[in-house]
Amino acid sequence: MTDQDLADYLAPGYAVDDVPELSALAAAQPVIDTFISLFRGSEAEVLLRLLVLREVGHDVDHPRWSPDALRRRFAYLDPVKLETTLKRLRESGLISYADDGLYHLSDAGRNAVAALGMLLRFGESEDAELGFLTAQLAGLQATDSINAEALGHLLSKLNDLTLHFEEAIASGSEFRIVESRRRLSANGKWLDRGTDILRSLLSDADAPFDVARIAQRIGLAQSRLARVDAAFQRALNKIETQRVTLGSSGISSSDVTAWLGQQSMDALAALAFDAITDTPHMPLLAGGHELLDRAETALCDLLRGEADDTTLPAADTAPTALAPEEEDLRLLTHFADRLDAIDTEPATLHDAVAGGGFGHAAYRLSLLALLADSQDSAPADGPIGAFMRLPLKVEFDATLVDVGHHEIARISAGSIRRLRPQTTD
């Protein structure tokens, strides 16, 4: 291809020399012509050329082939098609016809076969691109010809993997996350080898600036990928907390999804037969837990609405004021009369408080504590004040006295006696 041919594809005002990228490609025109010749034509023709080229370079012990040996080796091919393919490979410089009448691979052909073999070998596993790029960098490093362009290809692949893994986490799909995690683990060996290459590059003080700069960016990209595994685990833990189990069967929604993913289209169609309807009214399928959740939500909304209701009640006639309730002190006044009847002889404690059951006796016993208070603190009016001003003294003993009636088994021994009025000289 001439410069005039390329100029037809450039915008007005631009020449081929104005585009440095085209100059680099033009310098590699012989290599490009080799691959153009190899891959030009129909798909069948390209496959046939690749087949013959690979087989010619396959036998390392006998790198040269006679025409008869090639015909026997490719006995399954049409002889005319074979001769046409050999002629095309000779014309493109991929194979050579020596003076001794034997075919052998040219240097360009051997390089093409080697590059193709490497691509096919890495193509057998997933993410062949990362392995191929890492191996290419290792080869360039071994020949001390590593460049920024080769490093840029690796950086682009690492950034693409990072975006893919981040999208898998953002999707919330357990299967995408698990598959991405497996993919990250499969690429672990290439990431480790890439790290070794970067260390040697960054430790080289004579490395070009553009090479060192891209190497540092590759290191940052690999660091992000190293942290992705922890992000995968956090996402899986979050999914685990939200996993739905079908009743008490132990089967989760993930198990059902995985099983459905293994079924054929015909099996899925059979399962969906008569299971999908175009009517808008679908039957409610809910268990006890689902119904309870719905009922609890509805009840909470109802109570919340009632709590927020600030409507004033309707007008109504105010009720007639009733007399305030008064405390029933009849038991106190009756007990005060009983105590006031004590004269010169002291009364025993159990005789004074007994009567009417345990509750009444306990009440009377608690009233005796009022007698210990100062009479000055007694109310001026009322039965409580009158009770507190009784001239009586209560004495308790540490022993217990058997009573056996009025629901009282035993009571502390004690006596109640009247105080004598003080005399003045």
Topology summary:
Elements: H1 3-7, H2 20-27, H3 29-39, H4 43-56, H5 67-73, H6 79-91, E1 95-97, E2 103-105, H7 107-122, H8 128-142, H9 148-171, H10 174-186, H11 188-202, H12 209-241, H13 253-261, H14 265-272, H15 288-308, H16 330-340, E3 347-348, H17 349-353, H18 358-367, H19 383-388, E4 392-405, E5 408-418
Antiparallel strand pairs: 1-2, 3-5, 4-5
InterPro entries: WH_DNA-bd_sf
Report on the architecture of this protein.
This protein is mainly alpha-helical. It has three domains: 6-120, Orthogonal Bundle (Arc Repressor Mutant, subunit A); 125-242, no CATH class; 330-418, no CATH class. It is built from 19 helices and five strands. The chain has a three-stranded antiparallel β-sheet with strand order 3-5-4. Strands 1-2 form a two-stranded antiparallel ribbon. Helix 7 packs across helix 8 (128-142), helix 9 runs parallel beside helix 12 and helix 11 packs antiparallel against helix 12. The chain is rod-shaped. The protein starts with a helix and ends in a 7-residue tail after the last strand. The mean pLDDT is 78.
Rg for CA atoms: 52 Å
Number of strands: 5
Shape: rod-shaped
Q: What is the N-to-C succession of helices and strands? A: HHHHHHEEHHHHHHHHHHEHHHEE
Distance between the termini: 151 Å
Give the percentage of residues in beta strands. 5-15%
